[in-house]
Each structure stands twice: as structure tokens, then as C-alpha cells.
């Protein structure tokens, strides 16, 4: 039943987008006169904070290189939860023209909403470094920040993905003697309002619509056959301008789904309503 081979790499894209939000934070250290004496671009890595804490305990000379000194940050994906409050009609389809054949369409059903949990951990030795980083993050979340993502490049369909800041907490791992390394850790919990798309399919574009109606005779009886029809098809002049004149329009088979066409509407009556 689930034997599909599609792959949109949604989860990978969500992880990359979340990490990109925090990959350029800088801590400035100043002297007593207010002069900048050091700029530290805070390293960011994917992984649980326990891994970073183990590194702190095992390497007593962690401050030898800027690439592995504190402050540093880590983040990880922690949960997936279905979000029924954001679910739309599942039979609705989104369509887009194929880049190499404008007479055909990509079609995909409404995506399924999921809330993805992320945790961002800030690890510092000095409380001031932590407050600097926190103050660079909090003003942008009120309590959410939206990112525009092109989740399915083939369709060129862009969506705004909100990232909500749920909570902020702080802990201090300094509990032993003065020789034990201290790690001041700030934990920020986020919820990404994401979507998961199913497979996309190719189909031909509908070029003409013919809708028939049954009517009623003068004696009150209903007709069992079509009495009236409404026919709609695209209209386009040879110069690319839209038109509603069927006689002046090029063939419907020559009109692409991305053209700026008009609509030619024709009404046909099959009987006069008399018995």
C-alpha cells in the first residue's frame, strides 16, 4: 500500500532551516572602557547537549582553540506530533505546470500538518556571554518567527513555516569543587509548524469544460435528457493576449497552463421548454 519511491527531504530541510537561524551569532567581549577586545562567532552543531557536556568533562584543555571553546551551541530535533487543528480538506489538490511541458501539470494533495519540536542549547562559562546570546534571539520571537520555504521545488510552491518559541530555562552544572569545570546552560524549546507532503503526480491540463443541465417542460414534467449546456474553454490571440472571442482565438490545444488566457463561455439550448 505504501510502496512509493518519492522523497521530498522535508525533515532534512527543516533541520537545515532551523540551524541556519542561529549559525551566525557573535559574542563581543569588551574591556572596562567599553572597547571591543574580542569577537567570538559561536560554534553551532547538531547533537544533544549531553554530548557537549561529556566533551567538557573529558578535555580539561577545552579552551585551547576557538573552534571548541565556550560559548558554543547545539540543537536537536526532539519530537513529532500530528497537528489536527491545522488540517485542511484532504481532497484538495495543488497544481503547477511542468517546466518542460506546459501542457501538463504536477498535482499534489493537501499536505499533512505536523509540529516538530527542537531544542537549542547555549553553553557558556560566563553568565554575561549567555545573556548576550539570549538577547540576540528573544526579540525575534513574538512568540513565533516565520520562514518561507520551497518544500517541493518541482512545483515552485512556497510556504510560510512558523517557528514558535515555547519556553526558556537555565541550569548551572557547577556542583563540585573549584577544579570542576562550570557549564552554564540555557535551553530554548521551539515548535516548528511543519507540513509533510505525499507523492506528486503528473496529469494533463483540463482545457475545456462542458457542464450539462436537465430542464423542466411547460407541463411541469422534468426532462431526462440534457436541456442546456455551458461550455468553457481558454481564449488566446496569436499575439499572446487573452480573448473571449472564440473566432479570434487560437486552438485550445496550443494554449499552455501558464499563459494569460481569457475564458470563452458558450451556452447551448437543446429544447425550447415546450411539451
How much helical structure, as a percent, in the residues? 10-25%
- Estimate the strand proportion: 35-45%
- Please report the number of helical segments: 3
Can you identify the CATH class of the largest domain? Alpha Beta
Secondary structural class: mainly beta
Number of E-type strands: 14
Corresponding CATH architecture of the largest domain: 2-Layer Sandwich
Spatial separation of the terminal alpha carbons: 54 Å
Low-confidence segments, given as residue ranges, are 64-68
Kindly report the name of the CATH homologous superfamily of the largest domain. Myoviridae tail sheath stabiliser
Widest β-sheet, arrangement of strands: 3-4-7-10-9-8
Order of helix and strand elements from N to C terminus: HEEEHEEEEHEEEEEEE
* Overall shape: elongated
At CATH level 3, the topology of the largest domain is: STM4215-like
Task: Please tell me the overall pLDDT.
Answer: 79
Describe the largest sheet.
6 strands, mixed
How many discrete domains? 2
Rg (C-alpha, Å):
30 Å
